[in-house]
Amino acid sequence: MSDPTDDHLLLRVAQLHFEQGLNQQEVASRLHLSRWQVARMLVRAKTRGIVRIEIVHPQARLHSMEKCLAAAFDLDDAVVVPAGASEQATRRLVAQACGDYLADRGKKLRTVAVSWGRTMGDVADQIASDWAGRPTVVQANGGLSRPGPGSVSGVVGMLAHRARGVPVFLPAPAIVESASLAAALRAEPVLEDVLGLARSADALVFSVGPAARDSVLVTSGFLTAEAIDAMVARGCVGDVLGRFLNADGVPVDSDLDSRTVGLDLDDIRAARLSIAVAAGSSKAEAARSVAGHGMCDVLITDEETASVLIET
C-alpha cells in the first residue's frame, strides 16, 4: 500500500511541473526539495500511474493495434492511425500515413506501381516533395478519361512530379465492352510493356474500395449501380484495382473481370511489396479479403477499420 503523504507530494510535484509548466529547479525551490528529488518523483509519478503521457496528434500511430493487426493476418507490417471526425478526414489521415510510409522507404523504391481513386488522390496530394529519388511511377490499372484529384493524371502524375520522377501511363480504360477487346489491348506492345513494368515494380500501392453505389467506377459510367447491387447479392465485398472480389479473395464476376484492364489479383499476390490502403470501416470486409488472402504485405488503415478486422 502506498503512503498517502507520499502520493500527495508526488501529485503536487506532477501538477507543478506538467500542469503549471514549472521546470524541475522551480518545483524544487517551491517545495524546498533538491532538483534530484524532483526528477526522481516525476519518474515515480509516471510509474505509479499518477501521470500518464499520451500522444494525441491526429497523425500519431497506434503501435499496439498495428502489432495485433500484423499478427492477425501474418503481414510484414501494418500502419494504424486514429480515425478522423468524418469519412473524408479519416481518408486524408490514412493517405498521409501512406505517404509517410513511402517516404520512409523512398530511397529503395526505384519503380512504384499505383492504382488511382479518391484515397490515392489524397496520397498524391499530401506526400512530401522528394519522397523518393526520381522514381518511375507506373499506372497499374486502366483509368478514366476525365481529369481530377483521384484520376490517373492526378495520382500517377503528381506522385512522379513530387519526386522529380517519371510517370508511366497505361493508355487504356478501366473496363471495356468485351473480354476479347480487353485481351487484344493487353497484347498491344505498349500496354504489355507498361503492365510488365508494373508487375516488376519495387512496390505496388493500391487503395481498397467497398462494393458501393458511389464507387468511382459507377460515377464515371463504367458500371451501373444495379450492377454493383447484383455483385453484392453474389457476395462481393469490394474492389482492388477495379477487380471486384468476394470474402474468399476470388473475383465475383468472371465476365467483368475478363473485361477489366490492368494487373489482376494474382499479379497483386506476386508483387515484390504490396501495400494496401483502406480508409474507413466501410472498407473493412474488402480489406479483410485482401489481407487474408495474400494480396498485401503491408496494410495501412485507421483504428476503426483495424478494430473491426482484429475483433471479428
Automatic annotation (TrEMBL):
One of its GO terms (molecular function) is carbohydrate binding. It comes from the Bacteria. The keyword DNA-binding applies. Keywords: DNA-binding, Transcription, Transcription regulation. Residues 60-310 form the Sugar-binding domain. Belongs to the SorC transcriptional regulatory family. This is Transcriptional regulator, sugar-binding family protein. It comes from Acidipropionibacterium acidipropionici (strain ATCC 4875 / DSM 20272 / JCM 6432 / NBRC 12425 / NCIMB 8070 / 4) (Propionibacterium acidipropionici).
